[in-house]
Amino acid sequence: MPSYRPDLFAQRRTSEGRVVEEVIAEAEIESSLFLDHSLDQLEHMGDYIQYQKRKGVKVTGYLVVPHKKSVCVQATQLLETIDSDKIELLPVLKSG
User: Fold this and answer.
1) In a domain, 3, yes or no
2) Residue 51, pLDDT above cutoff 80
3) Residue at 2 is within a domain
4) Residues 69, 91: contact at Cβ < 8 Å?
5) What is the pLDDT of residue 96?
6) H-helix or E-strand containing 17?
7) Paired residues of 63 in beta bridges
8) Quick one: pLDDT at residue 74?
9) CA 23, CA 62: separation in Å to the nearest integer?
10) 56 is in which domain, residue-wise?
11) Distance in angstroms (rounded) separating the CA atoms of residues 17 and 48
12) What's the rounded Cα separation, in Å, for the pair 26 and 5?
């Protein structure tokens, strides 16, 4: 598995140290959504999820974008192009 470094990474382990569940996320702003880097990261995320699944680790992947209708539509289209139903769209409101 090639190295993959998501923007957010968390995992749950058993008391023996075995990884049983992970949460990973890529955060994008509207202007960077369709850059090659973003697409590459999402493809790596999909590969990583499949790799961990084969090892028996449940992974939930998220694409985090601003909560704006046009951005959500674009992000949904982007996820459809990489053909990964394992990555969920997570629109977030601006804090503060």
Assistant:
1) no
2) yes
3) no
4) no
5) 58
6) none
7) 26, 89
8) 92
9) 8
10) 8-92
11) 20
12) 9
Q: Are strands 19-27 and 87-92 parallel, antiparallel or unpaired?
A: unpaired
Proportion of the chain above pLDDT 70, given as a percent: 95
pLDDT in tens, 22-38: 999 999 998 988 889 88
* Residue 1 belongs to a domain: no
Q: Into how many domains does the chain fold? A: 1
Amino acid at 52: Q
Q: How far apart are CA 54 and CA 36, in angstroms?
A: 27
State the Cα–Cα distance between residues 29 and 55, nearest whole angstrom.
32
Task: Classify burial at 24, counting beta carbons within 10 Å of its beta carbon; exposed 0-12, middle 13-18, buried 19 or more.
Answer: buried
Q: Does residue 76 belong to any structural domain of this protein? A: yes
Query: Is 71 within 8 Å of 30 (Cβ atoms)?
Result: yes
